[in-house]
Design brief:
α1 links the parallel β1 and β2. The protein is of the alpha+beta class and 65 residues long. It has two helices and three strands, in the order βαββα. It has one domain.
């Protein structure tokens, strides 16, 4: 299961709390802020969505939600 989270800038302070839980409980995780900037991702997200290159922290991602 892959999950993408879109969060507000205020919530970025709490990402470190969720990283361990999200990484261990889901196959793919991508967290972006409200502007589409990637705040956290793991390698499985690349394989699940068949993206051309691995999204990394600081990249921008087109969000559809």
């Amino acid at each position: 299961m892959a999950v993408a989270y879109r969060i507000s800038m205020l919530a970025t302070l709490y990402i470190h709390i969720f990283k361990h839980f999200l990484h261990d409980s889901l196959d793919g995780v991508l967290i972006v802020n409200d502007r589409g900037k990637i705040l956290y991702s793991n390698n499985q997200f690349l394989q699940i969505l068949n993206l051309p290159h691995a999204p990394t922290k600081g990249d921008y991602f087109e969000t559809a939600f």
